[in-house]
Design goal:
- By secondary structure, this protein is of the alpha+beta class.
- The protein has a single domain, classed as Alpha-Beta Plaits (2-Layer Sandwich).
- Helices cover 32% and strands 27% of the residues.
- The chain has four helices and four strands, in the order βαβαβαβα.
Length: 120
C-alpha cells in the first residue's frame, strides 16, 4: 500500500501567488525524485470549529487561508529516500517561505484503505 505525507498550513491571502509558485516548484522536485503524486488544496469550505478544525489546528488568522496537501509514495522506504533527496535539492533553498513553518502540521501515514483496492 502507498505511503502518504500529509500537511496542513495557513497561508496569508496576500501571499497565495507566492505559495502557488513554491508549490509548482516543490511538486516538480518531489515528482522528479520519485513521488507518485503531489496534491495542494486551498481551503474553500473550512469553518472555524468550536473545539477542533483545520483553521484552529494551524492557528489561522482572519487574513489567512488553510492549505491541505499530500504527497504519495510507493512505500515508507521510498518516501524516506525521496525526502532525503528533496531536502538536499538546492531549488528549495530560497529562504523566506510564504507561510509560517512553525504552524505547519505534517506527518507520514500508512494507507489503510483505497477505493481502487475495494471497488471492482
Amino acid at each position: 500500500m502507498p505511503y502518504v505525507d500529509g500537511f496542513v498550513l495557513a497561508v496569508p491571502k496576500d501571499k497565495i501567488e507566492a505559495y502557488k509558485a513554491l508549490a509548482r516548484t516543490a511538486c516538480a522536485i518531489w515528482m522528479e525524485h520519485g513521488a507518485l503524486d503531489y496534491v495542494e488544496c486551498i481551503g474553500d469550505d473550512v469553518p472555524y470549529g468550536e473545539l477542533t478544525s483545520f483553521p484552529r489546528a494551524v492557528m489561522a488568522k482572519e487574513e489567512e487561508v488553510v492549505v491541505f496537501s499530500w504527497i504519495v509514495y510507493r512505500d515508507r522506504e521510498t518516501r524516506d529516500a525521496v525526502n532525503k533527496k528533496v531536502m538536499a535539492d538546492p531549488r528549495l533553498k530560497h529562504g523566506d517561505m510564504p507561510f509560517d513553518r512553525k504552524r505547519m502540521i505534517y506527518g507520514g501515514f500508512t494507507t489503510l484503505l483505497r477505493a481502487s483496492d475495494v471497488i471492482s
